[in-house]
Amino acid sequence: MKKIFKPVIVFILALLARGVVRRYRPRIVMVTGSVGKTSTKDAVATVLATRFFSRKSEKGFNTEFGVPFTILGVENPWDNPLSWLLVFKKAIALLILPNHYPTMLVLEVGADKPGDLARILRIATPDAVVVTRLPEIPVHVEVYASPQAVRDEEFSPAYALTPAAPLIVSADDPYALDNALRIPARVISYGTAGDASVRMSDVRFYESGGAVAGMAARATIGGEHGECVVKGSVGHAQILPAAAALATALAFDIPLTDALTALEGYEPPPGRGRLLLGKNGSVIIDNSYNASPVAVEEALETLKAFPHAKRRIAVLGDMLELGRYSVTEHERIGVLAGESADVIAAVGIRARAFVAAPGKAETMHFDNARSAAAALAAYVRPGDVVLVKGSQSIRTEGIVKALLADPEDAARLVRQEKRWEKKL
Fold this sequence. Notes:
CATH class of the largest domain: Alpha Beta
Radius of gyration: 21 Å
């Protein structure tokens, strides 16, 4: 039945969302890319809220379902028929009755399969596009002809921009930057490259009270400088969403000082390098939201550089949706893990490659997150820094939950809704 009704629901949602956009004509900022979309969307929305009545995509709702939900201002009804009726009722009210509708929408958009972004672009046309990173081996590559095909689709919202509209791209990503320079848009770049419009330099761990509490960097726009601090999460990648937000601020004429002040209230979403207190005096780097090769590589670099660690423990689950690149990428990451961690705990069938690579690290393997959680909770000790990362289906957040010093911190983890808990 779901296969029959899903296309119908998608069509109706798209029709209603398109109608709402045409009626209220909000300005639309689309955030696309293969890595870091949700963090970037949240940071961008935080800055834009200083100037506009804005709304952002909730969590990682970036599909042909999620984008209409954001436009309509409703939650995902999941399988509740009554909630679906309320969604349609609110949509019709938006179309018929006068409403105080947002003047700015920040929409995260993503593609699980070819054609997804084309369908979303039929619903809404962007006034500005933020492109995160488009790595060599992107996630979802197994359903595309090639990595290049994934990158082409992720970049495609930029082609919908009108001439001179803002196109905000990573200055450290050669593919995004090269393509940006070929279209008639106002290109604003961000990153650590020396020629970036918004340049982040002196990227470092931010410490408070003698403990790591986040990341910091020096932000430069033209002749202006400012200190940018992202609290609660670690990793070079955590600075990039803030940089993209500063670039968006530049595009919409928001002063650097105002944007930096706004970012003081920005909090990276759950499961993206979040720092948590672990059992027995350990520290957890919760990166359990998802895993792609480039994201795991960056997480391992963070673990390797993390200060004051007695043991560095990498808990790594399978990286899924890599298709024919799966074996080589797992083997490659295994080598990097051996160079970055004192202990490697692999979770899943594909993750066996993480402990098969030669190296001096102590290794262990678990078939699933449940068994890993049970073993590791008693294994950690004071001074340990524990990185936890894996693809969504591996559910490595269950491992993080078992390692928490304070069980109430479970509310800060990803996928804690009842719907997800039932799948464990």
